[in-house]
Amino acid sequence: MSWLVQFFSSGIGKKIIMSLTGLFLILFLVVHLIGNLQLLKDDGGKAFNLYTEFMVTNPLIKFVSYGLYFFILLHAVLGLLIARFNSNSKGTKYAVQRSPETTWASKNMALLGILILAFLLLHMGDFWFKMKFTDQLDMVTYDDQTVKNLYGRVAVAYQEWWIVAAYLIGLLALSFHLWHGFQSAFQTLGLNHKKYTPAIKGLGKLYAVVVPLAFAIIPVYYYFFMK
Amino acid sequence: MSILNLNIKVWRQNQNSNKGQFETYQVQANEHMSFLEMLDVLNEQLVREKKDPVAFEHDCREGICGTCSMVINGQPHGPLAATTTCQLHMRFFKDGETIVVEPFRANAFPVIKDLVVDRASFDRIIQSGGFISVNTGQAVDGNSIPIEKNRAEKSFEAAACIGCGACVAACPNGSAMLFTSAKVTHLGLLPQGEVEEDKRVQAMVAQMDKEGFGMCSNIGACEAECPKEIKLENIAFLNRSYMKAVFTGE
Ligand code: SF4
Ligand code: FES
User: Fold this and answer.
1) Can you list the domains of chain A with their CATH numbers?
2) What pLDDT was estimated at residue A16?
3) Separation of alpha carbons B119 and B159, rounded Å
4) Interface with chain B: mutation pick from A94, A108, A182, highest number of B CBs within 10 Å
């Protein structure tokens, strides 16, 4: 197994971990978004609350979610270590900084990552933590099922302007992070070919705009239209 | 022929252990000079004033040896695409302009003096596997091994790399992936090099890491600044080749 340890401690191996965990998180975002769009249903939160109950109790989902926490941490910690290593490898910075033909996002992935991490702490502390580890949420009963009313907490949180603002900043950071990260993940895996790379790049840009935008609709909608 | 009055703000550093600083000099250059000839004029001026001339590296002065390393106004080899410093002409600068000249920056390229950096780390990467092993003897007929045209062309494009180090200099991560990938692609695509590909790629990647080069985050500054237009596809090839070697090789 030493060969595997050696692989993952090489520069390329570390970047492949970043790429694979990143792609997993990209997939997760889609699932998360589809679930959350139920918040836009006009049913007093019934569909969303039943869905969240399912998500925290289903054993298979529980299993996958531990993988998710692990991959988020791995992506974040390794990403920061790589950024620090790279900054040391560069050493002295140039007096004149000029780099046309490169995107701002590609050079600021760690900064964007830190913003996203800060947003995640706020986001998970407010909803996920309260849902899983506390009894702070009220209970609601639908037909014969009594579940935690996470919808209620979401609706209250999104009345606060600063929470909505923090969400928008976090999602903007996510958008820039994906703008570079999506296509970069494929390049790192060695997938670069004139047959499909233009499509990957196009899809990545589309994803980076559409997904964060769709997430952003939810707090904005609640803030303005669900008084 | 027009004459340019330039302010050359250049990095001066006696030796690696000393701290360096910028000095600004006035130079008159004609527009047909290359950037290095302009520096020659500056140095003649400095020698006449009994001052220490600016140390910079050069050899072929025709864009093929890769020694003329410097960063001009924030860009390795200056503002012109696909052009080495020695092939960059002064007509691309404006009269009265201040031009900032710095050495290549990367921890694996320590400054020796002024604009001269030590790129022996590249040599060690090549020594670790950037070659093919052949027995000495009579030269083999070039056409005795058939090579598919596409492969030959891709390999040839990668072989254009002159090992100048501009990719490392341009990279905000100080990564040597473009250089190493050019070598791995160049040799790996040819039948003569393919046999040793697994061994080569693992040895070269290990050496690259050992030298302390950064990790590639696909920014693309290397590709933009490379005087020989080596493409990022080579880095994808390197990563594929490395994975193949690790997971399927001996
Ligand atoms: S890849 Fe380009 S920039 Fe890098 S060493 Fe080769 S020729 Fe120079
Ligand atoms: S001096 Fe040889 S490439 Fe410039």
Assistant:
1) 10-88+108-225 (1.20.1300.10)
2) 98
3) 19
4) A94
